[in-house]
Specification:
- With 796 residues, the chain is an alpha+beta fold.
- Among the domains are: 39-293, Rossmann fold (3-Layer(aba) Sandwich); 305-430, Trefoil (Acidic Fibroblast Growth Factor, subunit A) (Trefoil); 668-796, no CATH class.
- Helices cover 14% and strands 35% of the residues.
- It contains 8 helices and 51 strands.
- α4 (86-104) packs antiparallel against α8.
Length: 796
């Protein structure tokens, strides 16, 4: 062969190889382009400290955006926790992979790579089946929750350089971040954001974890340097654990699934997620934060005023003026009850790092010889250096704990503390949330004697157990129904399906719905866009498995309240629904059997005077063909309670004239109990309010609204019954009537719980207008009080 022929052949071979390479090179971007997510709906970037902060405190904001078609990027600054080894970093990341796969509803299959952003290594994870989900792990070292070295604070405040954990699965080189390089990396990540989520920058250690605070501060600082304005939201972390529940039931159920999936890997204990008493479960039904814009340039710390609310006494810390000791007083929203925690110069992570400053006087609270006094603030004065503590504890400058005893401020050692030494930065709290119910009461045995019925969360999943406690004698409660709902941490579908009864989404109601003389349990859950009414019939010794009694198209998320009542010739009780309308009113619907034994639903009353946040109570019917109810709701000025009687007579429903209760009875402090059976007392309604005339206890009043011109009259003062965490009921048993309280029994708490203790039933006999000053029965129940509470009404 000629040399030129050989040359041409070699050229042709090289050309073919080059052509093939170019084609393959071009195809790679084309294939990659097909996998690039469509972020046209928006991009939400979440920056948090730890690999569970987003799941516990930011959610459901992330999943809401994902369902709306957004891209979501989650940045975890910290790897592991508290100086943990690298294998714990990998374990936490495996947990967050599983959690986000479940959140997205796809398999746990990720593309992973170590990428460089602004020159620094970042471990990137992207869901293969849902590429709109991206996780960025910076793997910085973390600080301690309650005092100790805080590397992120050292970087941000003191110019330290931090070395990350290795990248990849340990084979990649670590990164080295200083303030400027971390800022540059975050700025590059945030550039494409149309919404930013982070934690609360405007607080002090250790009300929230120092890592939480500094992650939020540096995120805000960097976000404000972007060339364009972006909406940014800041979410509160630990303090929300004893704030009122504010997430809809279905959102809470999804959030609980995702968080439990994570903790099945990190710690392996899902029981802490399916309760409200266990500390990680405290955050699930709550999401609190506020929104701003990066266009509003703010300093790294913005001091804010707050209350210090003592739930055990239902009182607030109040300034008494310069040179005087603060006091516990009834909460009134005044500036004297507003306080600021102001940071004091300290090495990051040190305790005694904040001053307690009165918003009214601008002075600091000092501790001197075991007492407190307001004095001019001094930066280095040790008597003014407090330690705000997460989970509700407040440490004084002498490192003792601030609390309440007999309605007065008290300082004592921090061992063996009860809820009297827990503080909240919000009022109301879960302890004073009037929407919550605990025990229900009814004749479940058919022996003409009421029993208490309560529902207890299960720790193995989102199910519940139902217990019955006899109100007479000393018998122990008996489990009448066990509702186990298995939890699979590897599943990608919701645990709570269409026909599953889960605690978070359930509303409970007692009534004789089949007319056999025994009180049954009705469980109402979301289903198919409406509500499913599941009947658990009483056999006299247990509740049978649930059967679908009725399905409507009014979801529980619109139903303010369900209430059982009886009228007419048929023995079966019916259910009244107060349904919220878009114009902030309520209309009444009735569900029950008609004359043909079919369950029907009809609208019975649409009165423009009914507010969306009304509360309905039944009162006893003196005639068989009548029904009487009362609607209690805030008056137009919000300071008093308006009462509207509702009657059914001869098949016609009507609402009467509005009456106002005396000013003593406030919408946010008055609890009601009614006797809907004919008994030996004419106390149709009993109202309990905090005993403000003397510290502590409850004042009980009775009222007959059907007596023309009648007003509430004092029934009793009960100094030993706390108003918070106490639900009253008026019960008729045989020949006597009792005022019963389902309440939390005081208990010693460890330092990761806000409240707790066993439940208790306390009963006082009522004789006409008199009540015994001592209870005739006290039953300590083997139930965790906070895990037996359920949402009776949507709005306060």
């Amino acid at each position: 062969m000629h040399s030129n022929d050989r040359f041409d052949h070699r050229c042709l071979c090289h050309f073919r190889f080059l052509f093939s390479f170019i084609i393959q090179f071009l195809l790679v971007p084309l294939n990659s382009q097909a996998a690039v997510p469509d972020c046209s709906a928006g991009t939400a970037v979440t920056v948090v400290a730890h690999l569970d902060d987003d799941l516990l405190f930011v959610e459901p904001a992330i999943s809401e955006r994902l369902r709306a078609g957004w891209c979501v990027t989650v940045v975890h600054l910290i790897g592991g926790a508290n100086g943990a080894k690298f294998d714990y970093v990998l374990k936490r990341e495996e947990g967050t992979r599983l959690a986000y796969a479940r959140l997205a509803g796809v398999s746990n299959d990720w593309d992973e790579a170590t990428i460089h952003i602004a020159g620094e290594p970042v471990f990137e994870l992207r869901l293969k089946q849902q590429p709109r989900v991206r996780l960025l792990e910076l793997r910085l070292p973390g600080g301690a929750v309650r005092g100790g070295r805080v590397p992120l604070a050292l970087l941000w405040d003191q110019g330290a350089t931090l070395t990350t954990y290795p990248m990849g699965h340990g084979e990649g080189a670590p990164g080295h971040y200083a303030r400027d390089s971390l800022s540059a990396t975050l700025r590059s990540i945030l550039e494409g954001a149309t919404r930013i989520f982070t934690l609360n920058p405007d607080t002090v250690p250790f009300i929230e974890h120092p890592d939480h605070i500094y992650a939020a501060r540096l995120t805000r600082h960097v976000a404000q340097s972007l060339a364009h304005a972006v909406p940014i939201s800041y979410f509160v972390t630990y303090p929300i654990g004893n704030w009122p529940v504010n997430l809809p039931a279905e959102e809470a159920q999804r959030k609980r699934d995702v968080a439990a999936t994570y903790f099945a890997v990190d710690g392996g204990d899902v029981a802490q997620l399916f309760g409200e008493y266990e500390w990680n479960g405290d955050w699930i039904q709550r999401q609190y934060g506020h929104s701003d814009s990066t266009a509003r340039v703010r300093p790294d710390f913005v001091g804010t005023s707050t209350v210090l609310f003592n739930a055990a006494s239902s009182r607030c810390l109040a300034s008494a003026g310069s040179g005087r000791e603060p006091a516990l007083l009834p909460c009134n929203g005044s500036i004297e009850q507003q306080w600021r925690w102001e940071p004091r110069t300290a090495y990051p992570g040190n305790e005694h790092n904040a001053a307690l400053v009165s918003a009214a006087t601008g002075q600091c609270v000092a501790e001197r010889d075991g007492t407190l006094v307001e004095t001019p603030c001094a930066e280095w004065e040790p008597s003014q250096r407090w330690t705000p503590w997460d989970f509700g504890l407040v440490f004084t400058p002498s490192r003792r704990c601030l609390g309440e005893e007999n309605g007065e401020l008290n300082i004592r050692g921090c061992a063996s503390l009860t809820a009297r030494y827990r503080w909240s930065t919000m009022q109301p709290t879960s302890a004073t949330d009037l929407r919550l119910a605990g025990a229900m009461y009814g004749d479940v045995t058919g022996r003409h004697v009421s029993s208490a019925v309560y529902v207890q969360r299960r720790g193995d999943g989102p199910g519940f157990d139902v217990y019955v406690q006899a109100l007479q004698g000393e018998s122990a409660p008996v489990r009448w129904y066990a509702n186990a709902v298995p939890f699979d941490s590897r599943a990608t579908t919701p645990t709570c399906s269409t026909n599953t009864l889960c605690f978070d989404g359930a509303r409970f109601l007692l009534g004789d719905f089949d007319g056999d003389g025994r009180t049954d349990l009705m469980v109402i859950t979301p289903r198919e866009g409406g509500s499913a009414f599941w009947l658990l019939r009483s056999t006299g010794h247990d509740f049978q498995a649930p059967t679908l009694w009725f399905q409507n198209q009014i979801p529980p998320s619109r139903t303010q309240q369900y209430i059982a009542f009886e009228y007419g010739a048929k023995a079966q009780q019916k259910i009244l629904l107060a349904v919220q309308t878009p114009d902030k009113h309520a209309e009444l619907w009735m569900v029950g059997e008609d004359d043909t034994d079919h369950v029907r639903q009809i609208k019975i009353l649409d009165d423009p005077r009914f507010r969306f946040d009304l509360r309905l109570l039944t009162v006893r019917s003196r005639e068989r063909d009548t029904a009487s109810l009362l609607a209690f709701q805030p008056a137009s000025n919000g300071e008093r309670i308006a009462v509207i009687p509702i009657g059914l007579s001869n098949g016609r429903w009507s609402a009467g004239d509005v009456a106002l209760l005396p000013p003593l009875f406030k919408p946010d402090t008055t609890k009601f109990a009614t006797d809907d059976q004919v008994g030996d007392t004419d106390a149709l309604v009993v109202m309990t309010v905090p005993r403000f005339t003397e510290p502590g206890g409850i004042d009980a009043w009775q009222w007959d609204p059907f007596k023309s011109g009648s007003s509430p009259v004092p029934l009793a003062s009960l100094p030993d019954q706390p108003w918070p965490d106490t639900n009253p009921a008026l019960l008729h048993n045989g020949t006597h009537t009792t005022l019963a309280f389902y309440r939390r029994a005081d208990a010693v708490l460890d330092n990761t719980h806000f409240s707790g203790g066993n439940a208790a039933l306390v009963q006082y006999d009522i004789d006409g207008h008199d009540i015994r000053d001592k209870p005739h029965a006290v039953s300590q129940l083997p139930a965790t009080y906070s895990e037996t509470l359920w949402l009776e009404r949507l709005s306060r």
